[in-house]
Specification:
Blueprint: H1 3-13, H2 24-32, H3 49-61, E1 72-78, E2 81-87, E3 91-93, E4 97-99, H4 103-109, E5 118-128, E6 138-140, E7 149-151, H5 153-156, E8 166-174, H6 179-182, H7 188-197, E9 207-220, H8 226-237, E10 243-245, H9 247-250, H10 257-272
Parallel strand pairs: 4-10
Antiparallel strand pairs: 1-2, 2-3, 5-8, 5-9, 6-7, 7-8
Length: 297
């Protein structure tokens, strides 16, 4: 794996830069000699989905249309421009095209072939008949647990579960199409057992219900040669001067939600000021800001 995988992983785990742990020394220092850091999270009482819902309401209020439940099946081009997209239901002409889906999918529709790959994630969303034992918003696991991370919505806002109860979002990574992906229910009992073993919950019978959700393209895989491949891929896509790639999947960028929100705000501001789509730069990738000269353009 490329070093950026580890650097990005540590960077993503530390939200407050006053507790920076992007080097081995800073990680050891903050572990062995921690300094109190009070971090404030802004979180909607109804959940983070409210952010997107409010944006959608405003878009529709301005007379625009949001198309849901349709997959793009074809991208039409003319010269150096993307001119239309097709779904099974309709054809939509476009002047500009912002792509936030997996870069591998737009490659396929434009006839490009680059060896970039993603991990996928199975989310086991558990209803727990007990209050949360810990105040942590999320916890990473590096032992023999079947899961790699879990998050606790009530640690962001107590309104995310009824009084006296809480929920856990448990993440199990896989490759789309492998046995885990095809049969996620096989791991449900193991997930619960590992939650008890790790003392995250006290007893298995505290689990009232489990909701399984499979999400593809969750983690870009940073192989040793990924930067060379990604640079070549981005260069090929720059042929289309009305195309803008954005977000974790579109830029093959192992980032946090706050990075993507910041990137979106920066891009939107530039677009509103009339900058050409093909010239709008993406937000800084903080964990690549060092002496390296091989970062993506």
């Amino acid at each position: 794996m490329h070093r950026d995988w580890g650097r990005a992983g540590v960077n993503r785990a530390v939200i407050d830069k006053r507790a920076a742990s992007d080097t081995l020394w800073s990680l050891l220092r903050n572990t062995l000699m921690p300094k109190p850091v009070e971090t404030m999270f802004l979180y909607a009482p109804q959940g983070v989905g409210l952010f997107s819902e409010k944006l959608a309401d405003e878009i529709r209020a301005k007379g625009n249309r949001i198309v849901l439940g349709q997959s793009i099946t074809k991208i039409e081009t003319s010269g150096n421009r993307i001119t239309a997209v097709n779904t099974a239901q309709e054809r939509i002409e476009c002047d500009g095209f912002v792509w936030t889906g997996p870069i591998t999918n737009i490659n396929a529709m434009l006839g490009l072939d680059y060896s970039l790959k993603f991990l996928s994630t199975i989310f086991y969303n558990l209803e727990i008949n007990a209050p949360s034992k810990f105040p942590f918003q999320w916890t990473y696991f590096g032992g023999d647990e079947v899961f790699s991370r879990l998050s606790t919505p009530t640690a962001f806002s107590p309104t995310m579960a009824p009084a006296g109860k809480h929920g856990l979002c448990v993440e199990v990574t896989c490759l789309e199409g492998d046995d885990r992906w095809q049969h996620p229910e096989k791991l449900t009992q193991k997930v619960i057992e590992d939650l008890v073993k790790s003392e995250t919950i006290d007893r298995a019978d505290q689990v009232m219900n489990v909701h399984i959700e499979r999400v593809p393209y969750t983690y870009p895989i940073y192989t040793l040669d990924y930067l060379k491949t990604l640079n070549a891929n981005l260069a090929a896509l720059k042929k289309f001067d009305n195309l803008l790639l954005a977000g974790r999947s579109g830029r093959f960028w192992y980032n946090n939600m706050d990075h993507s929100i910041g990137q979106g705000l920066t891009m939107a501001d530039k677009i509103l000021r009339g900058e050409h789509l093909g010239l709008v730069e993406d937000a800084d990738r903080e964990f690549w800001n060092d002496e390296s000269n091989d970062e993506p353009n």
